[in-house]
Amino acid sequence: MNKIRIYITILLLALFCLKGFSQVESVLNNDSIKYRTLRTSFHFETPKIAVPSKTLIQIIMDSTTRAKIKSYTYSEWMNLLRDKKTDWAANLCLYDFYELNASDFDLWQNRNRWAQCCKPDDIAYWKKNLPH
User: 48: exposed, middle or buried (C-beta count within 10 Å: 0-12, 13-18, 19+)?
Assistant: First the structure.
């Protein structure tokens, strides 16, 4: 009887882990990533400090998946950015997590345009600025 409980527990844990993995996998896929752009307006933080407008990327995902993806290491991010199946999604996630201004997003609204114009610059930026 105890062996059956152990097997059931292991099976349930495995299913739970696989479910979490598939959620992350679907977010970090160029074909299925869901996001929106948000534009902030110019405003004054104080009478002497002006904050310019920004275009922000926001990935649509649950908080558990967000936390899991945010915990990726530098090398995991670099691998995702180099993979043609995940590069666009990974870059969008990084823009979201670091609240990087995507003011030129209108130029690269899709993966193909981004890969042609901006991918090398974005990868160079992340190589320099992601924590190692």
Answer: exposed
